[in-house]
Automatic annotation (TrEMBL), chains A, B:
It comes from Stutzerimonas nitrititolerans. SUPFAM superfamilies: alpha/beta knot. This is Ribosomal RNA small subunit methyltransferase E. Keywords: Cytoplasm, Methyltransferase, rRNA processing, S-adenosyl-L-methionine, Transferase. Pfam families: Methyltrans_RNA. GO terms for biological process: methylation.
Length: 235, 235
């Protein structure tokens, strides 16, 4: 946690917050914070600043806070991911939030196991928890928008063309395709497939919606690694 | 597992292997392989090719194999990492192997917790296990060399200048430094710090050994994410 993320419910006055639960434990056990210390804080969805620790005991922590700094810019990207397996999903959500992706679509694909859609990690509270961890890691305050799309075809036919309009549309796909471009100067819509890749029909449908296949070398990367590698290359 | 990695001990004839244990279970439970099927195989440290499944039962699997393809090229990089916390170490080892890093130095730093050096995940067999998982993921056969350096100063003073000679030496470090270069055309020596970063003394010593500080934006990334992002940007 490189940023203590605060929410409206934490405030007991305009410049005072009281923390309990996970953030309190983190202050005590990981940060080993002491009264008088100054910590980086951020207001969820708002500015960042500093908090001075006024009181810390086993029940709660109280901080005096001020905000004076905007959060870092997001990347100009909409990321489409074939729904990863539950364990990977949690890490990918953190990575996506940490790297500054403002919008993520979790999409079905032929090679997504049906059971993946049953995971409790897809519940809004569980998604939010991982995103918060990513924001705290990277020092950002703005939650990405997460869109969950259980049906590939209607999404790609009806919604994707509009989402991808006026962007550079790319599908990460192994094979004899151009290399993923570097340091692009425009917004991007990027689709990354499941383990085993998109099936040809899906690549075709994504292409019809404006997304061109690109490859990232002959090595097959885990989804989480592919996400960070592709974003770092693009921006 | 996108590649079935074979070792000398698996061979019962020049073109026959018998598998048990983890790889057998993977064939049965994840791959759900069937007799007659052809699978991608690789010889640890050697070539890649195909294996035809001759027999599969609860005790073992037998394959007929042939090798006709070199493994993918490695990246021209030596990676220095401040020793990550044990859980992260395991994932980083997989990522390093998957992305094609040929040489990794795990180094001490002021901000590496002393307890991290006690982890059983640093034992050679445990390191090897994670590297193999990374190679199987990415379809590579060649294990990276892992150098474990518990003392920062002697390594950086006595060994690093030689390791970094004739390479572009870089230290990932947040702050007012040039951005990490892109698409470099020469070998690189890249050092990535611990959670909380290198201390100024360490950055200074790394600079004396020929490594220049570069930054990767204002977001603070987990080590694993920073590794894949920096490598993707550099190569």
């Amino acid at each position: 946690m490189n940023l203590l993320l605060l929410e409206a419910a934490d405030f007991v006055a305009a410049d005072r917050v009281i923390l309990t639960g996970r953030r309190l434990r983190h202050l005590q056990e990981v940060h080993r914070a002491e009264v008088g210390e100054t910590l980086r804080v951020g207001l969820l969805g708002g500015e960042m600043g500093e908090g001075r620790l006024l009181r810390l005991d086993t029940a709660s922590a109280e901080l005096q806070v001020r905000f004076d700094q905007p959060p870092p810019a997001k990347l100009p990207v909409t990321l489409l991911l074939a729904l990863p397996r539950p364990k990977m999903l949690r890490r990918v959500l953190q990575t996506v939030a940490a790297m500054g992706v403002p919008r993520l679509v979790l999409l079905n694909s032929y090679r997504v196991e049906k059971s993946f859609w049953q995971t409790p990690f897809l519940e809004p509270a569980a998604i939010r928890e991982q995103l918060i961890l990513g924001l705290e890691q990277a020092r950002d305050t703005v939650l990405p928008e997460i869109i969950v799309e259980k049906r590939f075809k209607p999404f790609v036919e009806d919604r994707l063309p509009q989402l991808a309009a006026d962007t550079l549309g790319l599908v990460g796909h192994p094979g004899d395709f151009p290399a993923c471009p570097r340091a692009v100067q425009q917004p991007v819509t990027l689709a990354i497939g499941p383990e085993g890749g998109w099936i040809p029909y899906e690549v075709e449908k994504l292409a019809e919606a404006g997304l061109t296949p690109v490859q990232l070398g002959e090595r097959i990367l885990r989804v989480e690694t592919a996400v960070s590698a592709l974003l770092a290359r693009l921006f």
